């Protein structure tokens, strides 16, 4: 049996390779043109009017570019070199200033303590394997945010009664058999990549274990979404 951390590293490698595949890079390049969704724009109404913003899992720069257009100082990070290169090109084309960096693992961010006034994590939380790793990730984001700053997070969710239908049986089972430490909700898209599906209650419960204060947990359908995402604001308590 492999150590848990070895399996986490292997799953993270699968995620990096998946998002660096040409079809994924091309998909997110096309997505840049769509800008923020209505629900994302609603969530970011409380983004600070100035300061330094970290976009974690920036993809091809879709959210980073929109935030940079507001005059904010944006740093985007992603595990896919292809997406980071695309984000840089997209920012140049949009004539905005933003910095983009490639990272190996979101559990270790290459920034000093209290470096940012806010952070974004749009539809990326589910690609971190194991609850322990996800909570380490949240603690790391907490570290690089200034006291009182917020993490704006969106995550896919599945209905309770369809939780297990998102496992794509045969191809999933073949890949899952390679790992001993998978959790309920862990799955593989047609045997590729890795994703952890959350129910709404499961996501809320897990986020409540982070060092952040959970300020907002909103069904996106109520603000122009499709009901398949939760909009979250997690805030670092201000220093007393």
TrEMBL record:
Keyword Transferase: yes
Methyltransferase found in the keyword field: yes
SUPFAM superfamilies tied to this protein: S-adenosyl-L-methionine-dependent methyltransferases (SSF53335)
InterPro entries found in the cross-reference section: Methyltransf_25 (IPR041698), SAM-dependent_MTases_sf (IPR029063)
Location of the Methyltransferase domain: 53-148
Keywords associated with the record: Methyltransferase, S-adenosyl-L-methionine, Transferase
Alphabetical list of PANTHER family matching this protein: METHYLTRANSFERASE, UBIQUINONE BIOSYNTHESIS O-METHYLTRANSFERASE, MITOCHONDRIAL
Name of the molecule in the record: Methyltransferase domain-containing protein
């Amino acid at each position: 049996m492999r150590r848990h951390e070895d399996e986490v590293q292997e799953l993270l490698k699968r995620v990096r390779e998946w998002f660096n595949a040409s079809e994924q890079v091309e998909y997110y390049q096309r997505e840049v043109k769509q800008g923020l969704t209505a629900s994302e724009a609603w969530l970011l109404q409380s983004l600070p009017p100035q300061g330094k913003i970290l976009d974690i899992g920036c993809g091809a720069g879709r959210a980073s570019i929109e935030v940079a257009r507001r005059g904010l100082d944006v740093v985007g990070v992603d595990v896919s070199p292809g997406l980071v290169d695309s984000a840089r090109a997209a920012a140049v084309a949009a004539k905005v200033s933003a910095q983009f960096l490639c990272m190996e693992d979101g559990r270790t961010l290459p920034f000093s303590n209290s470096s940012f006034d806010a952070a974004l994590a749009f539809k990326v939380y589910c690609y971190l394997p194991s609850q322990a790793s996800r909570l380490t990730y949240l603690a790391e984001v907490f570290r690089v945010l200034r006291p009182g700053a917020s993490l704006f997070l969106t995550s896919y969710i599945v209905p309770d009664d369809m939780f297990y239908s998102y496992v794509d049986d045969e191809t999933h089972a073949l890949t899952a058999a390679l790992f001993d430490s998978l959790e309920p909700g862990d799955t593989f898209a047609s045997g590729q990549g890795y994703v952890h599906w959350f129910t709404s209650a499961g996501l809320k419960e897990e986020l409540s274990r982070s060092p952040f204060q959970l300020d907002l947990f909103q069904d996106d359908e109520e603000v122009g979404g499709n009901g398949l995402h939760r909009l979250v604001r997690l805030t670092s308590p201000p220093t007393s």
